[in-house]
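Shall we go through a protein fold together, starting from nothing but its sequence? Label the sequence line and the structure token line clearly, so we can match residues to local backbone shapes. Would you write everything just below, so we can both look at the same thing?
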Amino acid sequence: MAHDLVLFDLDGTLSDPLEGIGRSINYSLVYFGYEPLEFSRLTAFVGPPIDETFRIITGINTAFDLEALVTKYRERYAEVGYSENVLYPGIAEALATLSEMGVPMAVCTSKRVEFAEQILEMFELRHHFLYIDGGEIGIHKWQQIEALLLAGKVTQSSVMVGDRSVDMVAAHRNGLKAGAVLWGYGSHAELSGEHPFYFFGSPNELLQLAPS
């Protein structure tokens, strides 16, 4: 099926961010007197907005305190955390092929746009994407896609590709089709529960998104 735009998630879809995210979460937790968490417990928090992550971990619900945790997290993430990303094998090649085939692509991520830009520049992937849409505290991904629809940057012929149920929900809530990647942090059960149109078992399978 041809789509007018492929909208990619970043974390867990194009690159593995666990080390940078995990270390930066623990940096913030320790600063505010909480115990650091094992990385095995932090995998669940790759993808969702960072304020939601701190809300779940700490039980805090006040905007002021959550913002303080996020600000401390971003202090480390901006300095070094963004660079602790690892590109998934085969992603660079798949994106290059899709570009060569004329497939329009963009990125929609819950992380702040400047961090996403830095990561994509670091991997020399930025030129593949028409634009990068980043999140902010209190904004859900479905709201990001809704805003992109209103701005004419996506249509209901576009497809959202990600590794977590939040990506699938955001697409479907706005009338887009969704594609689930199986190499990220969402389980098959989590993803299949949201009935994505596509399942991708490897980056090479993303080439299904090119027009035939």
Summary: The CA atoms of residues 50 and 207 lie 31 Å apart. The radius of gyration is 17 Å. The first helix runs from residue 18 to 31.
